[in-house]
Amino acid sequence: MLDVRNVSASYGAIQALQNVSLQVPRGEIVALLGSNGAGKSTTLNAISHLIEPSAGEIRFDGELISRAPSDDIVRRGLVQVPEGREVFKDMSVRENLELGAFLRKSARKEIADDFERVYTMFPRLKERSEQRASTLSGGEQQMLAIGRALMARPRMILLDEPSMGLSPLLVEQIFEIIQRLNREQGLTILVVEQDVRLALRVSTYAYILENGEMNLHGASKDLLNDPAVRRAYLGV
Ligand SMILES: Nc1ncnc2c1ncn2[C@@H]1O[C@H](COP(=O)(O)OP(=O)(O)O)[C@@H](O)[C@H]1O
Ligand SMILES: [Mg+2]
Fold first, then answer.
1. Which residues contact 32 (CB under 8 A, 6 or more apart)?
2. pLDDT of residue 106
3. 14 lines ligand 1 (CB under 6 A)
4. Which of 14, 49, 75, 147 is the most exposed place for a label (fewest CB within 10 A)?
5. How far apart, in Å, are the Cα atoms of 161 and each of 2, 145, 175?
6. Model pTM?
């Protein structure tokens, strides 16, 4: 469903990505791993065309999207949940969700259905729909950021460190939701995660970036048992 080929990107003189390739099959959860500064967010931002890659090609559903504007990419059904959630703190939960449906403003009935779907998935957001987003806990803000992405009716989402700053219990809850979205709604997911063990447990396939280059990749269950991965990333 997503095919990233030989993508490079830089910020001025800093080369952030070099020849990065990855594939995400339809209906699967794929993990993108690597330490701080490895280029994970840059990879997602290149896919969403929030930054301009200097080389490479990106295809979604077989169509070239690397030159498409980012709103067009959202319209095609590929939606990013940014690092640090980036919800609009002064707006209510409901208003934040409405913004997720911004590109489909005309379809009132559909949007009402989507509110129902998101509120069923996240009852906590329903209870707090008129509350300002700034008053939500970190975990609730992450739910809101995911809910906002779902309002765009995505077929695939890019999740950038959904567990950042959350307690272990909340991380478990967020990942349960991620797995449910995949299982129950068939959502294809590319998830960036620092907790390598957790990410390998929930994904079918994983890629590990190091210094802007793809260091290794493989089926998640193989990586979990790979001695080199266990030494370098799992502290075993
Ligand atoms: N806006 C920016 N301007 C300059 N350098 C950046 C910018 N964003 C990221 N970088 C650099 O690019 C590299 C990759 O960053 P990033 O993709 O954010 O890593 P990760 O998400 O894996 O932690 C890092 O060296 C980082 O310092
Ligand atoms: Mg990042």
1. 22, 40, 43, 44, 190, 191, 192, 193, 206, 207, 209
2. 66
3. yes
4. 14
5. 19, 12, 11
6. 0.95
